[in-house]
Structures are given as C-alpha cells and as structure tokens.
Specification:
The structure is a single chain. The chain is α/β, with parallel strands linked by helices. It has twelve helices and seven strands. A seven-stranded parallel beta sheet has the order 3-2-4-1-5-6-7, sandwiched between helices. α8 links the parallel β6 (201-205) and β7 (239-242). The longest helix is centred in the last third of the chain and has 28 residues, at 270-297. It is globular, with a radius of gyration of 22 Å. The two termini are 27 Å apart. Bound molecules: guanosine-5'-diphosphate. Guanosine-5'-diphosphate binds at residues 66, 68-74, 107, 205-206, 208, 244-246.
C-alpha cells in the first residue's frame, strides 16, 4: 500500500556485511532501521541482531550523564580523542540536540563533538530520545551491539541528567560516570536523589582557571558523601575525580578509573554477571513492549477501548473492572 513511501531497505546480508566490515554508512543505516517504528522493519531488525550477535560484547560500555552545560559534549570529545590516540575505536551514542526539549538548554545550534565526528576511529551517532527528553532511545541497547559488531571497543552512551535517565542508562552500560560542575546545586545535579548511587565515578568538570579551587573543594565534599554509602555489591567503591574537558587535564585519569574498574570486575566475575543480568532485564523489557503492542493493536481491543475509556471517565465502570474486561476481550480474541 504505502510501500512507495517506505525508506529504501536492503537485504539482511547487506546490513550484516556492512556492519562487520566497519562500514559506517551501513552502520548508520542499520541504526536508523532498528530505530524505525514500522512493524515491517521488526523482522529485518531481529535477523540482523541475531547475525551480528557472535561479534558483540568485546567493548567497555560507558554511560555519561550530567545536566545541560556540565560539559558532556566537550568531555566526550576530549575523552574520545584521547582514546583514539591511544589506539581505541570509540562509538558515541548521543542525543540529537534538535530533538531536545530540556528547557534552558544551552546547546543552541552548535555542532556537538565536531572533531570527534570527523575522527576516522570514532563514530558519533545522535538519536532523538523520543518520549523521554534527554533520555536514552528505546533501541540504545541494540545500537550498542551494532557498534560493537562494527569493531568499536569503547562505547559511550550520553544522557542528560534529569533523574530516571541515569537509572535506565545504568542498566545498559558497564561503567557509569556522573559529570558534575562545582556550584551548580546538589539538588539540580541529582546528588540528593539517589543518582550518585548508580554512579561508578563522579567527575567534577571545569577544574581550570578561577574554578580550580572550587572544583577541588567539590571533589572533597563528594568524596566524603560517597564514603557514607556502602560499597557496591560488586566490591567497587565509587570514586571522585576532577578534570578540565577544555584543556584536557585529568582526562587520562578518568580513563584509568575505567580500566581499573574493568580489571577489578573481570577478575571478581562481576563484569559478566552484570551483563548477564542486564540481558535478562532487556529480555523482560522486550516482552513488555511486545505484549503492549499486541494488546493495543488487537482489532477487538481497538474496537472496545474508546467505549470502556468513556465509561471509566464517567465513573460507570471502575478502572480495574474496565481493565479486566479488556483483558478478557484480548484473551478471547487470542484464543479464536
Ligand atoms: P553539555 O551541555 O553538558 O554537553 O555541555 P557543553 O560541552 O556544551 O559545555 C557547556 C559549556 O561549558 C561550553 O561553553 C563549554 O565550552 C564549557 N566547558 C565545557 N567543559 C569545560 C571545562 O572543562 N572548562 C571550562 N572552563 N569550560 C568548559
């Protein structure tokens, strides 16, 4: 019907071979495909993921979060360029600023991570975050796998710190960095909202010029606060460090922390354990999403939903009774 309007699609092997040979155009197209909401693309997506799966996993996955203006894109650019200079291949899954709805954003029209985007050993992929402003895309996990299959061995996932995003991104990366600035307010930066509890490292950025002393003080305060928290079950005590994304000071120190973490987690078995647990929660997320789709796309449900919503609005039916009725309609139609 609408086939003529559909974006061009290739055969599965074109995507798979392209990804495995590190062809970034095909990598980009594959990410676009898996982000597509078209049901027709679902099958193709699953087939691609299945085929590339044996070539995934061999990277360190790093999440980076912080409020707008904390210096995330400047940091990722400095960090990424530092790592490629050391021979690593870096993929960055980032937020498309044009899709950003976070008020007070100072991103403007500036091209983010311009240098890194042009770095032959880096791949920067901005995605719109969909329903959650500044959050991770619902297909970030799949995108991580595609980048790994394309040969990237450091994967960076950026989010804007507004709360739930950190928890979500924490469930798909190995190491989570909270990027802070001195004097921006603990409440605003999520310090008092349990976000530090998912952080493996706190990095106080903009430790330069007049800000140097303030950053050092902030580091001490966060360090003291973190000591009050129990050591994570994986045996890792979250660390605090300072850096200047602008002049590069302290960037290598952040990477050393990541390496230290990776070494420790690999030797105590928590690295694989955490990835295994993340795969289980991924599976459950997919099941929930699929069941929801099946339910709301079911013709009998579509037919009854409006009427039942109306009777809930007018209090003729309770929400629970309406939900029960819909579930019955769904199971009856599934049995037919
Ligand atoms: P994002 O919104 O978190 O991605 O922040 P940006 O990377 O866009 O940085 C916001 C502003 O802070 C920009 O004007 C940067 O030049 C500046 N900035 C970022 N990192 C540093 C730093 O280490 N030192 C100083 N002095 N400024 C920085």
């Amino acid at each position: 019907m609408n086939q003529s309007f559909r974006k061009k699609r290739y055969a599965i092997d074109n995507y798979v071979d392209g990804i495995l040979s590190g062809n970034r155009i095909m990598l980009s197209r594959s990410i676009t495909l898996i982000e597509s909401k078209l049901a027709a693309d679902n099958e193709l997506e699953n087939a691609i993921i299945q085929k590339i799966l044996p070539f995934t996993g061999a990277s360190i996955r790093i999440g980076i979060s912080g409020i707008p203006g904390a210096g995330k894109s400047t940091f990722i650019e400095a960090f990424g360029n530092h790592l490629t200079a050391a021979g690593r291949k870096v993929a960055v899954l980032t937020i498309d600023p044009s899709s950003q709805q976070t008020r007070g954003s100072i991103l403007g029209d500036k091209t983010r991570m311009e240098q890194l985007s042009n770095n032959p050993n880096a791949f920067v992929r901005p995605s719109s975050s969909g329903a959650t402003p500044g959050g991770v895309h619902s297909k970030t996990r799949e995108s991580i796998l595609l980048c790994e299959a394309a040969g990237f061995d450091v994967i960076i996932v950026e989010t804007i710190g507004v709360g739930q995003n950190e928890i979500t991104v924490g469930s798909m990366v190995d190491f989570f960095i909270l990027l802070l600035i001195a004097g921006a307010g603990d409440e605003l930066q999520g310090i008092k909202r349990g976000i530090v509890e998912v952080a493996d490292a706190i990095v106080v950025n903009k430790a330069d010029g007049d800000n140097l002393a303030k950053a050092a003080l902030a580091k001490m305060e966060y360090q003291n606060a973190l000591h009050l928290l129990a050591t994570n079950t994986n045996g890792w005590q979250p660390l605090v460090t300072t850096c200047s994304a602008l002049n590069g000071e302290g960037i290598h120190g952040v990477w050393e922390l990541v390496c230290q973490f990776e070494e420790q987690m690999k030797s105590n078995g928590f690295f694989e354990k955490q990835r295994g647990e993340q795969n289980i929660s991924w599976m459950h997320d997919i099941i929930t999403m699929r069941i929801q789709n099946l339910f709301y796309q079911n013709p009998s449900i579509k037919q009854s939903l409006d009427t039942l919503e109306d009777s809930v609005v007018t209090a003729q039916t309770t929400a629970a009774a309406a939900a029960d009725r819909l579930m019955r309609i769904f199971t009856d139609s599934a049995e037919r």
